[in-house]
Amino acid sequence: MVAETLTRLRYRYVPDHLVGEVLGRRWMDNVIPVFLLVAVIAFLTGSIPNFLAAGNLADTSRQIGEFGLVVIGMTVVMLAGGIDLSVGSNFALANITALALINVAKWSVTASVAATLGVAGLVGLMNGLLIGYLRLRAFLTTLVTLTLIRAIVTFLLQQYQVQIASSDVDSEAWDFIGTGSVAGVPLSFAVLLVTAIAGHVILTRLRVGWRIMAVGGSRRSAYNAGIPVRRTVCLSYVVSGLLTGLAGTLYAARLSGAGPDTGLGLELAVVTAAVLGGNSVGGGRGSIGKAIVGAVIVSLLTNGVVRLGLQNGASAMVVGIVLLLAIAIDVRWNKWRGKLQAKVYVSPAYLALPPVPPIDSRSSSPYAMNDRLHDVEIIGLGEIDGPEDVILDEDDNLYCSVRQGDIIRFLAPDHKRREVYAHVGGRPLGMAFDKDGGLVVCIAGMGLYRVDSSRGIQKMTAETNRSRFSIIDDSRMRLADDLDIAADGKVYFSEATIRYGFEEWVVDSVEGRGNGRIIRYDPATGTTRTVLRHLLFANGICMAHDNRSLLFAETWGCRVSRYWLEGPKKGATEIVIANLPGYPDNINRGSRGAYWVALAGTRTPTYDLAMTMPAFRRRMARRVAGDEWMFPNVNTGCVVRFDESGRILESLWDLKGRNHPAITSMREHRGHLYLGGVTNNRIGRIGIPDADPEWTGPASYWGDRR
Question: CA 7 → CA 242, 343, 484, 497, distances in Å?
C-alpha cells in the first residue's frame, strides 16, 4: 500500500506533462536568443562607460530602428519560404534616391519619401515577379539583383555624390525624420515598434499572414488548399522592398550622406539577425518578435565592439565568432529540447479502477452479455463513414455526423433516401436540436457550430476562459465532442482532452490523466465559461429530465457522474454509475425517465492493470512505435439503459461485433433505438418493447410543436 501510494503521488504531482508542454511552447524557441541579448546588454553595460546614458540609448535605438525594419522585411520573405539578398543594395539605393531628390531635385519631403519607397518597392516587385510568378530560384535571383542594384547605386554616386555633399537641406520635417522623437522615443525606433506590432497582427490574425505562413510551410499544400501561392510570394518581396526603402530613408535623413560602402554586407547581417532570433530558413515558422530580438542582438554587438575600440577587422571577427557560437548553441538547444519533449510529453498517471463488474452471459449481472443487437435493422450500409452521433427531428428525419465533415440526413419515413444536410467541415461529432429547430454541432478542432433551419452555418464559440495559472493554452478548443441544451438555451458541451486533437485521442488513454472538461456557452450573452475541469476524457453529456442537473461520462474513468445546476447541491458533482464494464461515450435521454449510455468498448484486465503501471506506459510511449501501443479495447459495442439513481435497467450487446463493433451514440425515438459508431459504416435501428412508442427527443426537450 505504501508503494502504491507513493506511485500515485509521484505521477500525480510531479509535472512531467507540464515540462513537455513548456518545451513545446513557441516562445521556447527564443530562450537562447533572449539569454544572449541579456548577456550582451550586461557585458556592454559593464564594459562601456555611460552605455545606458540617455544620449547613447537614443543613438543606438535609431540604428536599431533602421536595421530592425530591414530584418522584419527579411523575416516576412523567409516565412514565405524565400530569401532576399538584395536588401543591402536596395538599402543603398533608397538612401541615395532620397538624398538626390531632397538635395539635388529639391523635391518636398513628402514627395521624396513617397518616391523613395516606390523605388525600393519596385525592386521588391521585380524580385517578386521573377521568383513568385516566373518561379526562379530566390537565392540566385536576389544575388543577381544585388549586383545589378549595386551597379545602379555606383552610377548614381558618380553623378550626384558631390552635389549631395555640397547641398544643405533646410527642412524641419526632414530633420525630424532624422533626429526627431515621439514622446521621447526616437522616430526610427517608434516606426520600428509600430511596424512590428502591425506585422505581428497581420501574420497572426489576418488572412494574408496565414497565407504567408502556409506558403512557407508547404507551397504544394498551400496551392492545393486554394491559396494564391505566386501572388503571396510576390507580396512578401514587395513588403521587404518597402521596409528596406523606409529604413534607407530614415538612414538618409539621419546621416545626410552617401558612399560606396552604404549597405555593404547588410544582407548577411540581416539574415544572421533573422535566423539568430529563431526564424526558420526553411519558411513557415517564425515571428516578428523573433526578428526584433535578433535585430537588437546584432545591432548591439556590432556597435558595442566598435565602441570598445577594436579595429574594423577585429570587430567583425569578434561579432562573427559570437554570432556563430550563439547559433551553434541555439541549434543544439533545439535538438536537445525536442528529444526531452519527446520523452516527457506523453505523461501517464496512476489510475486504479474498481474491479470489472461481471459481464458473463450466465451471470445475473445487469451487464450480462447478450446478442440483442444481432438482428438490428441496418440503415445506410456503406453510404456513410463514421456516424459518430445520430439524432432525429420532430418529423422523424434521421441525421448523422460523418468523417468527411458533413451532416447527412436520411429522410422519413423509411430512411432510404439520404442527402447532405450541411457541410460543416472538420470532424463533426455530437449534435443537439435547440428550441428553434437549429442543429448545434460539436466539431473537433473547431468548436461549437449551429446549422439553422435554412441550413445556414454559424460559429457559436471556439474559445473559453483560460485557466489563470495554466501553462497549457486551454482557451482554445481541441476536441469538443458532445453537447446538450438546457431549457434556458444554454449549451453545455464536453471537451474530451485539452492536450490532443481528434486524430490523437487514443494517446490520452495512455496518459489516463484528467485532461477533459465541461464548458457552458450562453447564446444570450455570447459568453463561454469552463464549468468543470480535470475529467478523465469527458465524453457524453445529457441534461437530466428535470433540467436541474446534467449527466456526463468520463471514458477512461468508466463512470457516469452528475453535475448540479440548480437546487441545494448547485455546483456539486456526484457519481451516478461508479463502475461500468466498458468505456462510456454519449449519453442521451430515454422514455419513461430513463437514460441511455453507449459503451464504445469493453474493459480488459490487462489494460486495467496497465493503468496502475504508469512507468510501464511511459516506457511504451518512448520505445514502441505508436501503432503498436497497448490501447483500450473498442471493438465490442454495447448500450446500457439506466434510471435517475444510476440503477441499470438493461444492456444490449452485439456479441460477435458484426453489426456494431463500436457504439458511440444512440437515440431513442418512437419506441426504437438508433445506433451510431465513430468507426462504423452504418446506422442501426432496433425496437425497444417497453419504451414509450410516442416519445421523441425534441418533444422531451421543447414540447410537441407540431
Answer: 60, 19, 38, 23
